[in-house]
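Lab notebook, bench 4. The sequencing result for the construct came back, and we need a structural model before the next group meeting so we can plan mutations. Quick request posted to the team channel:

Model the 3D structure of this chain.
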Amino acid sequence: MAHRLVDGRGWQPYPFQQFILKVHGWCNLSCDYCYVYEMADRLWRDRPRGMPAATVEQTARRIGEHVGTHDLPAVNVVLHGGEPLLAGLDGIAHAVDAVRRAVPTEVDLTFRMQTNGTLLTDKMLDRMRDLEVRVGISLDGNRRGNGHRRWIDSSCETNRSKIPLMLRILSQPTPSPRQAGALEAAACGHESPTI
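Done. Here's the predicted structure in token form:
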């Protein structure tokens, strides 16, 4: 738990308001700079690929307890990985539903998912809208930079070829007034990610 200094009374606990759930531990890209999958540490190979259902349930209960104990008005849950879409639609829905059941209904609960976007399909995005999960795509700068060091699995294909499809899918108008699948592209370069 984070701490804060309060009016000379010393350190007091400051409750978490954002939780990151690593719903899938593996990734479908092979980026040459990745500190998890491409460096010396190979412990990830012996760990479960996806978060087991019992762990999802227990984590959701603990989030709910934390929110209730601290009477939090709002909480943000980020579905993360590896590549979270490798958990599949059922795995993602289970995590979202478990947290929704555990957190008091009056809490403003938001869900986000950070993905490399290579596995996005219309069906997946429709399901994310239904679940009210906002989708963010990680990009490494502009078109050239994004495809330079990010490889799909061990093939020679970069994810650059999939970017126009990802952006087209995410930019489609949705019949849902919630607009929950809005594009949030995170660029890690100096130029904007003009694709």
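The CA atoms of residues 18 and 76 lie 5 Å apart.
Will bring this to the meeting.
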